[in-house]
Amino acid sequence: MSKFQSAALIFLIFYSFNTYSQKKVLLAKSTTENITIDGKINEEIWKTESVATDFVMFQPDNGKPINTNKKTEVKVLYDNNAIYIAALLYDNEPDKIKKEITNRDVFGVSDNFSVYINGFNDGQQDFRFFVSSAGVQMDCLATEDSEDFTWDAIWDSEVTLTDFGWVVEMKIPYAALRFSNADKQTWGLNFMREIKRDVQKYTWNRVDTKIGAVIPQAGILEGIKNIKTPTRLFLIPYSSAYYQENDIGSGTTFKAGLDIKYGINDSFTLDAILVPDFGQTKFDNAILNLEPFEQKLDENRPFFTEGTDLFNKGGLFYSRRIGGAPSTEPIIAANEEIINYPSTVDLLNAVKVSGRTEKGLGIGFLNAVTEKTYATIRDNDTNETRKEVIEPLTNYNVLVFDQRFNQNSSVSFVNTNTTRNGGFRDANVSALLFDLSTKENTYNLYGDFKYSSINAIEDYDGFKTSLNFEKTSGKYRYILSGKYLSKDYDINDLGIIFYTNYHNAYANASYRILNPTKVFNTFKIEQEVNLEIQNTTGKLQEGWYKSVIKATSRNNDYFELALIINPLETFDFYEPRKNGRYLQIPRKITSYFGTEFNSNNAFTFDFTPSFTIYDQDDRITYGLALGPKYRFNDKFSLFYVLDYTRKKNDRGWVAFDNMGIIFAERNREILQNDITGKYALNNKMTINLTARYYWSYSENHDFFTLQDNGHLVQNNNYSMNKNRNFNSWNFDLSYSWWFAPGSEISILYRNYAQESTSDVEKNLSTNFKNVFDSNLTNIFSISLRYFIDYNVVKNKF
Question: Which phi and psi (to 5°) does residue 59 adopt?
């Protein structure tokens, strides 16, 4: 080889390396032309020369250039109101493009195109906007830890299917983004294209899966400068009408309210909710709860799910506390009884302010007020009634400061406060968090220190601290962590925590393939060890080893196999329901195997059998979850899930009496059936069905008394009926029409019922009949939400 050829080869290798390792740059072009979002891209201004192309595979064969017959080209324009994106997505087999019509934020079996925008270019958070080939919008706020699809922005998009593939046109107003007030903007930017039939994802700027962090690997958008953004003021008035009928009677209710969104500047937004109405939110999944802890419920109210990423830092905010169950119970005399105890407290109003400065300081403030709530008590001797406050007027607030730096690191301060009027319990919790990554995103050090202070009849304070070190890159990765929680650490006034008063050590090691093999598209194996020791007694609270294998076959079927071994005797400090007491838990082995067949198929199926074997008197738990799904066409689909668990010779607390703490050995069965159906009239209008039937019983056959050493001894004298039989039914049939951006008409028919008794009934059909013979409630409601942009109204008048 000649010197010239050698030099040329070295240059090409160096050039190729730099091309792959350096960030791509796209130039946005300014426009004064009116852009019509119709999916046709026929305005003259779209002939700009700056094009994002040469996409690279993200999954599964990371780094492989996109095939020329799947060429993808993207252009960006901007004006003072929004950025505009046009994407040409070529496909040599356009008739095979997957295009299922779904609800908003549901991907389904469809190709999709997305844009990831980071207005601060800090490598920490993306605003992501997706459009499917069926024209359905999805959007989320994304960090390295999560994608929050409860966040919904107001933006416009259209899709056109062509003989060469498909076309996407998008308009994303600045109101849907956050960025600095600099005259010259530099944004982090990436585009992703998913080809569903091949189960392949491609990005414009390559994302190397050897590196754990995705967001810092975005490209750059330049060219946006001297923009004068309009006032960001949006009003969302709504009104609802409800008709309810049950065994007690019937009635009609009308509600109206207003949500306000105001852009304080390009970085900060104020959200306020006045006269809230959550009548059409998803129902809660009621269960037979025999645990020593409350049931943790999902948040379904939009105000508390949309854009709350800042407020969730540190895990101190459980939004269901706001407007949840009252915090106290009334004190009654022997001749009195409670005849009305509200299950929830009404929310009066709520407001939140959130955003981030140009220097990376995120600030969040949330405040909510709930009303004074009373229980009604009757004197059984005189039949007179009285009211007693069970929850005073209460103020909740969350304050967050989150400083980002070095593209991938942050330090945060979080404070939550609950103030109840009068002599009721108050609480304050503060936390300092840090998350530090190396420049190359190969290692991560993170941890926290949290301090709680409770003002009640007896004041008490507590703390929690943790330190974690993680290798976040390559085929081999690991995590080492430890934490300590004091006995009186308590965040339950505005957060939720079950276990305290222990210290912990945890280790995780994993191996994964980064590119497909002859057998697997993806493969990962993890090994974990966890030890938890109770502080006061020094006894082992948790001690297990876990091995998990997760894999996707070349046919895109998913498999997961796990083995969890608890080789040592442990102790439960909560099941006895009394401080200082504990229950011995025997050694056990748990395993499960899960599989989900290729979701691209019209008929798909998933199932997960599981079992737990205890080293104790023929005690065993086994279960089966299975879910067939059939997609009749791109508009209509049905999904059924059955989840069954049987616990033989389970043991748990049942009562206190003069003999001490009483436990029972019992047999339990838990059966849950869920049916979800969807029929899409078009990509703005859907009919949805959600139905759930839950049945569970607990039948006691032996009783025991808890000893001071945590063991149980037979109790042949206790004979109270502590059996439980519980049925729950929920049915929602809804129609939704997004008739304009941010504006929706929804019609809902709902019925529900619950039945609980101490008489165990093991016949399923009888249980199903009994729940319908109980107090079945029927609700019919119509709701209208209308999105008003202040600038549109101003321009009209």
Answer: -140, 145
CB half-sphere exposure, 698, CA atoms < 13 A: 21
- The phi, psi pair for 499, rounded to 5°, reads -110, 130
Distances (CA, A) of 507 to 146, 468, 651: 22, 10, 30
Query: 267 — phi, psi (to 5°)?
Result: -110, -25
**Structure confidence at residue 8 (pLDDT):** 42
Give me the DSSP letters along 343-412. SS--EEEEEEEEEE-TTSEEEEEEEEEE--EEEEEEETTT--EEEEEEE-SEEEEEEEEEEEETTTEEEE
Distance in angstroms (rounded) separating the CA atoms of residues 745 and 684? 11
**pLDDT at residue 357, rounded to an integer:** 86
Q: Which strand (E) or helix (H) includes residue 663?
A: strand 660-682
Q: What span, in angstroms and rounded, lies between the C-alpha atoms of 368 and 366?
A: 7
Identity of residue 239:
S
What are the DSSP E strand ranges found in 204-346? 219-222, 233-245, 250-263, 268-274, 336-340
pTM, whole model, 2 decimals?
0.89
Alpha helices in 631-783 (DSSP H): 764-773
CA 596, distance to chain mean position in Å, is 21
Q: Would you say 489 and 520 are in contact if contact means Cβ atoms under 8 Å apart?
A: no
| CA atoms within 13 A of residue 425's CA, in its CB half-sphere | 19
CB 753 within 8 A of CB 694: no
Q: What is the pLDDT at residue 276?
A: 78
Token pair, residue 688, equals 């949805």
Q: Which DSSP helix (H) or strand (E) runs through 591?
A: strand 588-596
Task: Give CA–CA dist 98/266, Å, rounded.
Answer: 37
In angstroms, how far is CA 736 from the centroid of its own chain? 22
In one letter, which amino acid is 513? I
Length of the chain: 797
Interatomic CA distance for residues 228 and 220, integer angstroms: 21
Residues 6+ apart with CB under 8 A from 88: 41, 71, 72, 73, 74, 164, 165, 167
- Cβ atoms of residues 276 and 350 within 8 Å: yes
What's the pLDDT at 660?
92
Which helix (H) or strand (E) is 502 found in, with range?
Answer: strand 502-512
According to the model, what pLDDT value does residue 677 have?
97
In 3D space, the residue among 663, 659, 649 whose CA is nearest the CA of residue 710 turns out to be 663
Residue 369 confidence (pLDDT): 96
Q: What is the DSSP string of 51-117?
A: -B---EEEESSTTPBPPGGG-EEEEEEE-SSEEEEEEEEE-S-GGG--B----TT---SB-EEEEEE
Compute mean pLDDT per 10 residues along the chain, 797 residues long, and list them: 45 39 89 92 88 96 95 96 96 95 93 96 92 95 86 92 96 90 93 96 96 93 92 90 89 90 86 80 89 90 81 93 92 91 91 89 94 94 93 96 91 97 94 95 96 94 98 96 97 96 98 94 97 97 97 95 97 96 97 95 96 95 97 96 97 92 97 97 95 97 96 94 96 94 93 94 93 90 92 77
- Residue 176 has φ and ψ, to the nearest 5°, of -90, 0
Rounded CA gap, 261 and 238, in Å? 14
* Sign of the alpha-carbon torsion through 763, 766, 770, 772: positive
Dihedrals φ, ψ of 33, to 5°? -75, 145
- Using CA atoms in the order 213, 215, 218, 222, what is the torsion angle rounded to 10 degrees? -150
Rounded Cα distance between 348 and 388, Å, is 20
For the beta carbon of residue 358, count every other beta carbon within 10 angstroms: 12
Spatial neighbors of 222 by CB under 8 A, at least 6 apart, are: 25, 26, 27, 28, 185, 186
C-alpha–C-alpha distance, residues 545 and 530, integer Å: 7
Rounded distance, CA 245 to CA 512, Å?
Answer: 56
Peptide bond into 292 cis (omega under 30): no
